[in-house]
C-alpha cells in the first residue's frame, strides 16, 4: 500500500537521506527536482524515480519536500506551481512563511540531525519537529513524519529557530572545538586520531546522562586557577583561542546558560 | 607471572580505572593509599588489596602511581618515602618536576581520556603519554604503559601541557556546549534526550575522519549572515552566550587555529 507520492526538491545531504527513507516509510518518490544535474540524477537513481530541473515539468505529488539551503527556500518556492498539494521545507533556520504565498498548504519537517553524503542514518531515531499552516495539513505532514520516525513533535517557527541555535552549539560549535583540539595536537606532532577515544567517551557520557551539567569536569569546573593560568600562557600567541578559552571557562564557572 | 607490584595513590576516577586495569596488565596492586577512607576502601576491595592512609605504612612497591588532583600531586609526594622505586603521576597539567625532590626515579603516565566513576573503559585503546627522569625509569614506565595500552607515546612536560589544553577543548568545553544546547532545548519545553542523536552523530563523524576541519557545517561555515543575525537576536538577553556564539562563529569563518 502506497501512502502517497512525494517529490523531493533539492539534492543535498538531507534530500539524499529523504530519498532513502521515504520509500521505506511507505510513500513513493515521484521525482527528484534539483538544479544540480549530477547530484540530482544520482539521488533519483537511488530512489528509482525520474530527475527533473525544468520548473514546468514538476511532477504532480501529494507532498513536496523542499530540502535546499536556508537561503534558497523562498527562491525555489517562487518558481514552482504546487497547486493544492502540501509543501514542506526541512530547514531549522527558516520560518514556515518562507513558503508563502506559493504554497497554500504549507509546513515544516525539521530533522534535528546532521547529515553527510551517503551516510545511512536510522531515521526512526531522528527527532522530527513539524509545523503546518492548518489542521488538515498538519495531519498529513504528521502522518508522513510518523511513518519515518518514532520521535515526532510539533513546534512553531519561533521554537524551531531556538532549536536550530541549540543544534549549532551541539554540532557546529562542538566540531569547531574538535578542530581546535586537532590543531593543538598537530602543533605537538601528534595525530587527530589520538583524540578519538576522548571525543567518543565525552559524547557517550552525555548520551547516557539526563543532564550534561552533572558531567562537567576540568580545570574550570574545579576552579583550578594555576592550571587555567598555565593554559592561557600556552595560548597567548593566539588571541582568538585565548578569548574562547576565557569565555568558556568563565561560562563553566558561572554555570549560567539561562 | 607478575611483572611487578604497584601502589595506587588516590581514590578518584583515574585511580579507580587503574585499579581495574593494572591487574589485567600482569602487575599486582599491593595497596591503595588514599586520604578518603570510603572511596579508598572501595577501590582496594575491587583490586583485592589493602587500603592505607597512614604515610608511615606505605607498602613497598616497584612503581607508585599518584592519581590525585593536579593541585595535590606535589603535596602528596612530599609526605611519602618512595626510596628508589619508580614514582609516576597521571596528570596532564603537572610537569614531571611536581614529583621532585621526593621521587628520585620519576615520570608521568598521562591517559588522554575522561574517566567516570565505575565506567569500565577499554584501557588498551586509551592513548598514554609517558615521560621519565632518566632512561632506566623510562624503560620501566614504558613496560607498564605498554602492558596496559596499545597506544603509548613519549612526550615531555611542555608537550603534555598542550595536550591537556587540547583535551580541555575536546572534552570539557564540548560538554559545556552540550549544556548550552540543553538549556536552549529546555527553554522550549523540550528534553535533552532529543539532542542525543545529533551529539552522537557529530562525534561519530569526527571519529571517522582524519580532520574535523573538513566536516564543518552550519551557518558560520556557509557565511549565512541572515541566519547568524536571527540566532544573535534569539540570544540577545544572554550576553555570555552571545559572546560565545560570536567568537566561535568568527573562529569558524577565519578558520584560524594556528
Order of helices and strands of chain A: EHEHEEHEEEHEHHHHH
Mean pLDDT of chain A: 95
Q: How many helical stretches of chain A?
A: 9
Main sheet of chain A: which strands, in order across? Answer: 3-2-1-4-5-6-7-8
The assigned structural class of chain A equals alpha/beta
Helical residue percent band of chain A? 40-55%
Radius of gyration of chain A: 22 Å
The coarse overall form of chain A would be elongated
Distance between the termini of chain A: 48 Å
Largest sheet of chain A: 8 strands, mixed
Low-confidence stretches of chain A: none
Most extensive interface between two protein chains, with residue counts: A-B, 95 and 95 residues
> How many DSSP E strands of chain A?
8
User: Which percent band covers the strand fraction of chain A?
Assistant: 5-15%
As an assembly, this protein is: homodimer
Layout: helices, strands, pairs:
Two copies of one chain form a homodimer.
Chain A: E1 5-9, H1 13-24, E2 28-33, H2 37-47, E3 50-52, E4 63-66, H3 73-78, E5 86-89, E6 105-111, E7 128-132, H4 135-148, E8 152-154, H5 157-187, H6 196-207, H7 219-222, H8 225-234, H9 239-254
Parallel strand pairs in A: 1-2, 1-4, 2-3, 4-5, 5-6, 7-8
Antiparallel strand pairs in A: 6-7
Helix pairs in contact in A: 1-2
Amino acid at each position: 500500500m502506497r501512502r502517497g507520492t512525494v517529490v523531493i526538491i533539492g539534492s543535498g545531504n538531507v534530500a539524499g537521506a529523504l530519498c532513502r527513507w521515504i520509500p521505506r516509510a511507505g510513500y513513493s518518490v515521484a521525482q527528484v527536482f534539483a538544479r544540480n544535474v549530477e547530484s540530482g540524477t544520482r539521488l533519483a537513481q537511488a530512489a528509482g524515480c525520474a530527475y527533473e530541473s525544468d520548473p514546468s515539468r514538476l511532477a504532480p505529488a501529494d507532498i513536496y519536500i523542499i530540502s535546499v539551503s536556508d537561503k534558497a527556500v523562498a527562491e525555489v518556492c517562487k518558481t514552482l506551481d504546487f497547486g493544492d498539494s502540501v509543501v514542506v521545507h526541512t530547514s531549522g533556520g527558516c520560518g514556515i512563511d518562507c513558503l508563502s504565498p506559493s504554497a497554500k498548504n504549507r509546513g515544516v519537517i525539521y530533522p534535528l540531525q546532521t547529515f553527510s553524503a551517503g551516510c545511512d542514518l536510522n531515521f526512526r531515531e531522528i527527532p522530527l519537529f513539524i509545523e503546518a499552516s492548518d489542521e488538515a495539513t498538519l495531519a498529513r505532514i504528521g502522518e508522513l513524519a510518523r511513518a519515518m520516525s518514532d520521535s515526532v513533535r510539533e513546534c512553531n517557527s519561533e521554537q524551531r529557530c531556538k532549536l536550530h541555535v541549540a543544534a549549532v552549539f551541539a554540532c557546529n560549535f562542538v566540531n569547531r572545538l574538535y578542530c581546535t583540539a586537532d590543531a593543538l595536537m598537530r602543533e605537538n606532532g601528534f595525530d587527530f586520531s589520538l583524540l578519538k577515544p576522548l571525543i567518543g567517551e565525552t559524547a557517550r557520557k552525555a548520551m547516557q546522562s539526563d543532564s550534561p551539567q552533572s558531567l562537567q569536569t576540568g580545570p574550570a569546573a574545579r576552579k583550578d586557577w594555576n592550571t587555567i593560568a598555565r593554559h592561557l600562557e600556552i595560548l597567548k600567541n593566539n588571541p582568538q583561542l585565548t578569548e574562547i578559552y576565557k569565555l568558556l571557562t568563565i561560562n563553566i564557572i558561572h554555570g549560567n546558560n539561562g
